[in-house]
Batch of 2 targets.
Target 1
Amino acid sequence: MIKLQRLVIEEFRGIRKLEVELDEKSFVVHGPNGSGKSGVVDAIGFALTGTIARLTGPGSAGLTVLRHGPHVHKRDDPAEAKVALTFKDVASGQVGTVTQTVKAANQPILAPDTPELRAALEWAGGHPELALSRREIIKLILTEASKRADEVQALLQLDRIAEQRKALNSARNKLSQAANSAASQTSSARQAVLTHFGQTTFVPTSLLAVVNGHRETLGLAAIAQLESATDMSAGVEAQASETPFDKQSALRDVAALLEWLGDTSDRGPLVTQLVDACRTYTDNPLLPDAAQHRSLVATGLALLGDGTSCPRCDIPWESPEALRAHLEEKIAASQASAQLLAAVVHAAEQLQEPLRQGAALIERCHLLAQARGETEVASALLSSRDNVIEIGRGLANPQGALLLADQLDAGELSSVDAVTTASRALDEAVKAQPDNSAQAQARSALVVGADRWKAFQQYRSSEEQAQKVSKVGVALYEAYCAAADGILEDLYAKVETRFSAFYRQINEGDELSFKAELTPSSEKLDLAVDFYSLGMFPPGAYHSEGHQDGMGICLYLALVERLLDADFTFAVLDDVVTSVDMNHRRQFCELLKTEFPDVQFIITTHDKIWAKQMVSAGLVTRRQGLEFHDWTVAAGPAAEHGKDYWDKIDEDLQADDVPGAASRLRRALEAELPEIAEVLGARVAYRGGARYDMGEYKTGVDGRHNDLLKKAADTASSWNDAAASATVKDLHSARTKAIAGLEESWAVNLQVHHNAWAQMSKQDFAPVVASFQRYLQLFQCGNDDRGSWIRVEGSPGHETALRCDCGSYQLNLKKKSG
Amino acid sequence: MSIDDDIFEALGSKAAEIEGLSDEAYAAVVEVLRGSAKPNAEKIAASLRVSVVGDAL
């Protein structure tokens, strides 16, 4: 967490050379559009991250920091384009300067280069949300729910959570697939044991009876109980001249494969079901599109009012009903699309198990053929086995299943001629083998059976372990989801509460019942807001652009507050409150001052009055401002630091530029007197078109000010407040002198807006300036940093106080009752 | 505390109740999850296999 102290910009963007003292305090940069304000924002971002946000992202194709970061005159000399930002690491209190050049962007030079400052710099560079424009903030409000989820997730860096959830889900699926695969292998191994001993179902006593029959033939003791560790061949003496070959068992293996090939009753309907599902899905090209556009259409449907134009693209429709029916049809199509894809996945999953069984049967016969020296048969069976395994893999994902539809429809699984031919050849080869003697038969049966039993037990053990691991994977994934969902629900609830409170504060006296609801659901984040207690609606439904701007900044502040907590020490707001109307700007300043007293806000605005209001409301001091004007390609912006018009008039007079000083004074009075009239509640005779001259404002202001001081005197008297009476007396005396000073000046009597001012000498005009300065000071407190006007509180006729924002000017206007 | 910290604090107590999940395996999973912007699912699965089955697999 850092605070910004000083910024030096050279040959960067539209700025040639600029030094800004930020002093860890909030700061306002103002100037008309195109005057270079955003260069300051870009410079701060560049110093911290080595990139320029404006040159990246959508709409920035062909733009690069290296080519377009320097001032246009230095575009071939990027080493000249540099930014130096002096900052304080709030945690350690250390101060350092980071310097970045466009030529070596992302290779910051830090001085002093301490671990604390480097960590602070890296932290700030990792939080791009600390410098946002109006365009980026309004996206939080005016966007579809799925995109809002993306924006908010990006802002809160929740994409990490999505990635973690995804990784755990993927791990869970991998473990589940491994468990299923292990189960399938166990099943095949069990079937191999059963086939070998001529059994159809696994009944341990029946199996043991067959085993013991063979052992009896060899004169071996019977096995009492069949257990996992049982060695069926215990005691069987190996015969050097014999290779274990159980002719009957081999014939049963081949028969089992031939039966699987010939009987498609298990997989045939599944193939048909899968092919049908794939065909239905792919034959209608609108269905995949419908799935992709579902959220967009749902947003349009939610925004649909009584109008006859589409709320998203303004295309006119014959009636709202027709448009609604069209959108509902699209929603239905997307639902159908999702259901059909689910049907494809389901059918593909079902088909995998019989394929695994077939692959296992083919594999047993392949090994048999290999052992009997039937190389051609073995090769054909191996090829067939690989083909079946490949199809099974393809069915493991929806896209693979869709691609296999044609192959399956062409009878890939039923085209078993090659396998059948090979199996029959193997059958003949086995039958051609001489029958075993009874004892040789028994020996082979027990040796081969023991091997298969052992393999079955190993597979079963592996399956048990795989199932346990799979359960842990599922439990961990569910635990993570529960933990993340709980935290996020709490986060959204807090954000919702703060967002609503912030918005109510800046709309004080307007939307007191305002509340917002943030509703997360899967990949979406719905936002609904109250509209004058008439219901909850999307923010763009009824609220004005200015209100939406206000919502954007309030939601941003609520989100960043939750994200950074005490680390929220600075933010750059680039023209973010453009549309907030005059009446709500003071409350907005109050919000930033009261809720974020320790945050340094760097604010840009093209609105000069708004910049001044930030000063008068005490959000920034008069010295913490920078005015840009008269930007040219050759010189960049003309910048003036923390000066007010008195400073500038004085400079004009020092330079003997009386016409300049006169013009500046006239413009200052034109701006100030209406504002003073407003904050005091002065009466000005009505004119159509609001064309008032300065004299009319001044008359109204003088009269109102006099009335208020009289009321303050009466009030002080009613409370027997001698100190207040003395204060009012002093103010009244100052007023008398200031107004008399104006009236005594022959120059002022010319009319305050008279062009004759410009013709005066410096000696004649200086007293005019001094008179007006004294006059305007009547309506200010003595706090030079603020320069805010005193304002009356209460309603006309029921005024309660006359005070300034900082509290140093305070007159009670509420008389003691009775 | 970051949102990430909050989640893993909540997850820690839940994970302790999962039968078959050793402390070492959980720590390894957390390291994988928090150590990369794109955590590797195969590494997580491998850590869980070791937890239940042991190093043999």
Target 2
Amino acid sequence: MKKIIIIFIFLFFICGCNNQVEINNIAVITGMIIDFKNDEYNVTIETIVSEDDKKIKIFKESGSSIDEVLAKLSKTSNKELFISHLKTLIITKNIINNNINFYDYFLRNPKSKLNFNIYLIDNDIDIFNENESLSLYLDDLIDYNTKTFASSENLSFIDYIYKLYEPGLDILYPKLNYNNENLLLNNLSFIVDDEEIILNDIDFISFNILKNNINKTNFNIDCDNGILSLALNSSKTKYNYHNNNLYIDVNIDSFINSNSCNTNLSDNESLNNLINISKIQIKNNLINLIEISKKYNYDFLGIGNYIYKHNYDEYNKFDLNNLNIIVNVNLFISSIGETRK
Amino acid sequence: MSENKINSVGLSSFIYPLSCATFYGTFSSYMLSISKTVTLLSLILGYFFSLIISFLILKLFNAFPNLYLHEKLKNVYGKIYKIILFILISCSFMIYTLFTYRLTSFLSSHYLVDTNKIFILMLCLILTGYIADKSPVIITRITTILLFTSFTVYLFNIFTLIKYINFENYLPFTNVSIFNVIKSSIIFSIYFSSPLFFINLFKKNNLTDNYKFNKIFFFSNFISFVLIFISLFVTLGVFGINVSNLFDYPLYIVLKKIEVLNFLDSIENFSISIWLLLSLSASFITLSFVFNNIKILVNNNYNKYIILICSFILSYFLFFDNNLIETYSYVIYPIILFLIIILINLITLIILKIKKEDH
């Protein structure tokens, strides 16, 4: 009995209830915008405060570190800021241009969950509002977009860190545009020497094909006076590096979604001709994307990373611009649809 | 010591926590930092080295099946057996302190960030002290229950993380020196198999089916290795070596990736309970070894309280102000202690062999 009493006394004093905070006294940070100007971090946070019902509150502050900003924000809010449920982190171009280390705070903080998404925006503008949680909206938007149209891709914080620390791999950022009070999820982009390059839809599909990252997408092929729309079933890209030559073999399995070309699809020769046209166009799209990467010397395709991992001894000699890249595309059309013509 | 009858499976439940506990929180980050992408190969090599140590431990356990460890030492060393026992108890006590300290530092840095470390250390000491005070048979039962709970969590973790594995992350395979690979595999073998010495809490005749024990011992040892191997395989496959090396507890951080059906996430604190349970089990098994053997040297009712207070003071003064301990430099301390234990085990076996030949 004596032991049980002692244990209960100790449990009462030393359990995790020490320094506990009631949920009503917590402001859950769901979104954060970080900008860097005049040697100061300008941070805007979107919080959800749970009192009687859900309320969204926006706070803005600046300081010499993110931690200092959050400490200052705690003076304007009567709630404890809680970072574990952060969903959206928006960084401005300034952060990238000035190579600012914004991530260290999130890496070190044990309460940070590392699975929130990162977006890029031009300037530090007030896109958060107190009527609707933009962070939660964005979270759903990018999820839907990635799964359904494959025209954008989410960049989780831990993936960002992975790409940052992997040799020979540069980062593409999902871009947000804000026009006339409308928020738009743009395609992926990157910044080189203060210049921003945004990939178009075709580039992004080519990027996903080259990265073996494709889920479900359509692409249009220009043919005789019309358009052939191909839906992608699966795609497999293989790389092989030898003597400063990178051989890229792409195997695509697809089916025809719609066809407005003057081609009789039931005729083998015509179909083969169409396949050849498609192959050339897909190959050109892939080469275009590789050329963009070469032009800006920005290895978002991770070609350097491939050589680092597969031909480690040759990585030191690797130069993206001098690399000879040979692309070969194999296209299979597994179905022409319900109609035969 | 009272007669404690258990079966071989019961005693083998000690093997999983003793082999795995130090690895999760302490050795994994060190191993990843020195053997990098070749860590998995180091693990396999280390396992083969560890079989030698496991064999030595099992040989001592099998010698004089009707005697407890202190009685065996008395037979072998004669009058000086108490000194040898004292050294063993001191090492075990230090290992216990390191187990609980490491657990405390993990809990305070990732679970209860705002709570004072001393409170958490006290909680660990009281909990392990309370269980270790029970009879060894009860300890095997607790260990078995915790083991099944841990396995369930473990399987959940692995199945939810497997989809994130990228096989490219195991490359390149050539940028690590052979010296580092051998070094990490030898240290792994010491970490992995030396704690098994604490099965000497029992004597072989305590086992109702002692003829089966050797087989079950090596089987459990192999399963422990597989658990560790899969944990590192998944961590390395998900994060790659560069991100894994960023963290002190990569096996914990990787659990932050877990997301089930798009809504069940942020469950790493639940998922890491495997390490907490294994660590707690290893701590109270070690402490039980200390409690049961200290009686031979000093028969005092207050032994256990003194030991717990000493452990608290040692943790407080040795580690709390030393930031170096938080990093992988910590790895060296258990190695020294484990090596002393293995050395005593080896010398005992050699003397036994010489005595046998003389007769």
